[in-house]
Amino acid sequence: MKSRFSSAMIFAREHANRELTTTMTASAEKVNLLGLPKTDLEQFFVERGEKPYRARQILKWIYQHGVSDLDAMTDLSKSLRTTLKDSACVSVPVEEARQDSVDGTVKWLFSSGSGQAVETVFIPEPARGTLCISSQVGCALDCAFCATGAQGFNRNLTAAEIIGQVWHANNNLPMRSNGEPAVTNVVFMGMGEPLANYRNLVAVLELLLSDWSYGLSRRRVTVSTSGIVPHIDRLGDDCNVALAVSLHAANNRLRNRLVPINKLHPIDELLAACWRYAKKHSNRFITFEYVMLRDVNDSLANADELAALIRGKPAKVNLIPFNPFAGNEFTRSSAETIRRFQERLRERNIVATTRKTRGDDIDAACGQLAGKVSDRVRVRLSKKNLRMASA
Ligand code: SAH
Ligand code: SF4
Questions:
Q1: Among 213, 284, 374, 377, which residue carries the largest CB count within 10 Å?
Q2: DSSP 356-390
Q3: What pLDDT score was predicted for residue 376?
Q4: Do the strands 88-89 and 129-132 form a parallel or antiparallel pair, or are they unpaired?
Q5: pLDDT given for residue 383 in this prediction
Q6: Which residues line the pocket of ligand 1, CB cutoff 6 A?
Q7: Same domain, 223 and 289
Q8: How confident is the model at residue 20, as a pLDDT?
Q9: One domain for residues 341 and 250
């Protein structure tokens, strides 16, 4: 039987320690250069008596040339490469499995040690290649309709394990016809709650955005959150990326049931943080994700309630047809119900779209990512634990 937790959980101190250790020591005592933001890399070189610009060279090799072998970094002198190899490495994710959907979607399973694994999905479209990445092994937030939540939580992924998903995808997919890397957009919509892994999230965002590494535009990077309000404010200060918020219900009674973190940060608090975020970034639209669950949140009255919450605000709605998984109580709303719900929102002057389900045949759709999660950690959801998660 699946283990479900009665209250949502975030993080455990011992796992925070484990995470730090994994980041810094990928193999024996060597520092894993993958996942280190520029300032950390510069510090690494300065501490070893080298010039800080070495950091920029390494970043280009790893992220722009896809090189993980220090010996292949030929603009570093041979002696530097030799000393570097004593203390550093570029340790990339280990692919455990790959599945290719008939519609071109690709799903990878990456080992995260101790029998655990996380999933990453690539969704090709004519104008873009979107990579949906995981931020945690499992998730503690226990949303009622989510396969990852049903798995429980083991640990945060390190920055190397998160950015490594992008590295692996770019290294294992053909380039686009214009000669650019396959991944043009990144969404944090895989396993886990990215804002509950804040420090590593920000390191990864920097690597995604910086011209020294992937150089993606801010519009092409989306963080999706179930609503950890203090971290939304922090992200607004630290990083100007696109924000998606998993709303799924427009009243607290229903949202408490579907998204338990709502008990800690109810809808009015969440929306206030969203409008603050939008204001900091020239009123850029926030996307509200709304999973369509038959006879649960899909009536026209639900649509009206949703419209009333966000009317006149910098907001758009993305309806997600529920993707079923074994052992779950919910059913997907019919296509006709979704169409009418979307139309009703539009009649109320809300920008609304419906997400196309991709990768159905390989269980790669939203909310179906389960990876392998064992050795689950229980931590009660509380504001104190949230503060620990953001440390
Ligand atoms: N933890 C973050 C990001 C990962 S989940 C968050 O919750 O936003 C990515 C998206 O998939 C979220 O909007 C989530 O609500 C949605 N989702 C989860 N389970 C789903 C399911 N079974 N069917 C459709 N969407 C689902
Ligand atoms: Fe976690 Fe997001 Fe799934 Fe909720 S929907 S359990 S926050 S991954």
A1: 213
A2: PP--GGGT-STT----B--S-------HHHHHHHT
A3: 67
A4: unpaired
A5: 66
A6: 143, 145-146, 189, 193, 224-226, 246, 289, 291, 320, 322-323, 366-367
A7: yes
A8: 34
A9: yes
Q: How far is the CA of 258 from the centre of ligand 1 (A)?
A: 11
State which of 89, 118, 136 marks the end of a domain.
89
pLDDT for position 381: 64
Q: What is the pLDDT of residue 112?
A: 86
* pTM score, whole prediction: 0.91
Q: Is 132 tagged catalytic?
A: no
Mutate which of 3, 118, 133, 146 to test ligand 2's pocket (most atoms within 8 Å of Cβ)? 146
Domain boundary among 47, 66, 89: 89
Out of 188, 224, 381, mutate this one to test ligand 1's pocket (max ligand atoms within 8 Å of CB): namely 224
How confident is the model at residue 9, as a pLDDT? 34
For atom 16 of ligand 1, which residue has the closest CA? 367
Burial of 180 (C-beta count, 10 Å sphere; 0-12/13-18/19+)? exposed
β-bridge partners, 118: 110
Strands 88-89 and 94-100: unpaired
Same domain, 78 and 221: no
**3-state percent breakdown (helix, strand, coil) of the chain, nearest 5:** 40, 20, 40
What pLDDT shows up at residue 114?
A: 81
262 pocket-lining for ligand 2 (C-beta < 6 Å): no
Question: Which is the catalytic residue, given 119, 161, 193, 206?
Answer: 119
Domain that holds residue 53: 27-89
Same domain? For 174 and 318 the reply is yes
Do 75 and 125 fall into the same domain? no
What residue ranges of the chain have pLDDT lower than 50?
A: 1-26
Give the number of whichever ligand sits closest to the CA of residue 247. Answer: 1
pLDDT tens-digit map of 223-264 = 999 999 999 999 999 999 999 999 999 999 999 999 999 999
Q: Report the separation in Å between the CA atom of 218 and the middle of ligand 2, taken as the mean of its atom positions.
A: 23
Do 269 and 133 reside in the same domain of the chain? yes
Q: Is residue 249 part of a domain?
A: yes
Q: In degrees, to the nearest 5, what angle opens at C-alpha 81 toward C-alphas 70 and 167?
A: 20
User: How many angstroms is it from 177 CA to the middle of ligand 1?
Assistant: 31
